[in-house]
Specification:
Order of helices and strands: EHEEHEHEHEEHEEEHEEHEHHHEHH
Radius of gyration: 19 Å
Bound molecules: NADP nicotinamide-adenine-dinucleotide phosphate
Helix content: 25-40%
Distance between the termini: 41 Å
Largest sheet: 8 strands, parallel
Mean pLDDT: 79
CATH superfamily of the largest domain: NAD(P)-binding Rossmann-like Domain
Number of helices: 12
Low-confidence stretches: 242-265, 278-321
Number of strands: 14
CATH class of the largest domain: Alpha Beta
Strand order of the largest sheet: 3-2-1-4-5-6-11-14
Length: about 325
């Protein structure tokens, strides 16, 4: 049996799918134990109990490998990065106590203690906790992850669909190399089956400037918003809704792109290309669905609930979404 944090969320869902396909039993730890289960009851569910060491260890007992996707995207409802770090440490301690032999930890490209961004500082410290744990470990460092249910691409699409202007932080010339969520999951599951300690970058085969990425996604939903270059400080400072309006919803990954020109050398390159999004322009005009890298839900960051997928762009417009 393996434990996956967030099996009903984003990256954890892809990892879980791969594990189930490989015949593994999966238990998930999650903050939303009642969330709809896309795996038809095949995954057992344990709620996060970061402040209860005994419950945390009990939830992990019997697992051979912990696939840890836990982190927060931005400070929200009292959970900031320092709290996320404490929770990560508690999770690792619980795993050790429960006798888990290996942890596959999803980090991010170029985490750094010295980063100006709390997200990346926290990720560096979380990696250190993984390395210090008594478990063998594989650390995977993805760039921006795209695929069904992703946040960055879907939020760009959501904003591009609705607004005539799209706020780009700074010059927009900083580069991103999106990696497909399924490729990250393949890497993770492969790493779970090994015993060596490793750190691997997970980067996609294509490089875009952030501005190119925005234009590509906007084209995929049939829009051409005017790009408005805004000082990054303006977007980082004000309250969240304004950051969202500025296209920085996605704040963590975009800030990462601002800060980080690309992956460290020797990183593993994912196979799937984001360029397949271009197919979706055709899909939006009524062509059949399909295409590797097709994105899933278009979810406005400040609203929950069912929303259309990028392939459903035409239908979404019809419903006024
Ligand atoms: N998404 C990307 O583009 C990207 C890029 C590079 C690295 N990463 C890293 O990959 C890992 C997984 O990212 P993801 O986007 O797939 O994350 P996610 O699915 O949104 O969340 C992963 C786990 O963290 C929990 N979580 C997230 N925000 C939380 C909050 N505010 N309070 C409490 N729990 C919270 C989720 O809880 P629930 O189970 O309750 O949903 C889930 O169990 C993270 O470590 C992230 O830093 C992501």
């Amino acid at each position: 049996m393996d434990a996956v944090t967030g099996a009903f969320s984003y990256t954890g869902r892809s990892i879980t799918r791969r594990l189930l396909e490989a015949g593994r039993e999966v238990r998930t730890l999650t903050g939303h134990p009642s969330r709809p289960d896309p795996f038809g009851g095949k995954v057992s569910v344990v709620p996060y109990a970061f402040d209860d060491a005994a419950a945390l260890a009990a939830g992990l007992r019997g697992a051979e490998v912990l696939y840890n996707t836990y982190w927060v995207r931005f400070p929200y409802r009292g959970v900031a990065f320092d709290q996320a770090l404490r929770n990560t440490r508690a999770l690792l301690q619980g795993a050790e106590e429960a006798g888990v032999r290996r942890v596959v930890h999803i980090s991010i490209t170029n985490p750094s203690r010295g980063s100006a961004l709390a997200y990346f500082r926290g990720k560096a410290l979380a990696e250190e906790a993984v390395v210090r744990s008594g478990m063998s470990h594989a650390i995977i460092r993805p760039t921006v992850i795209f695929g069904e249910g992703d946040v960055l691409i879907n939020n760009i699409a959501w904003l591009a669909r609705r607004l005539p202007l799209f706020g780009v932080p700074g010059t927009g010339t900083y580069r991103v190399r999106p990696v497909f969520v399924g490729d990250v999951a393949d890497l993770a599951v492969d790493a779970g089956g090994r015993a060596d300690n490793s750190v691997t970058d997970a980067v996609g085969p294509e490089t875009y400037t952030f501005e190119e990425l925005v234009r590509l996604v906007a084209r995929a939903v049939g829009r051409r918003p005017r790009l408005l270059h805004l000082p990054p400080t303006l977007l980082l400072g004000p309250p969240l809704p304004l950051r969202w309006m500025g296209g920085l919803v996605l704040c963590d990954r975009v800030c990462g792109a601002v800060q980080l020109p690309g992956p460290t050398p020797g990183g593993l390159v994912g196979r799937r290309a984001l360029r397949a999004l271009r197919d979706l322009v055709g899909v939006a005009r009524g062509a059949p669905r399909g295409g590797a890298g097709a994105c899933g839900r278009l979810r406005p960051p400040w609203r929950g609930g069912a929303t259309p997928s990028v392939p459903d762009a035409a239908a979404g417009r019809a419903r006024g979404l």
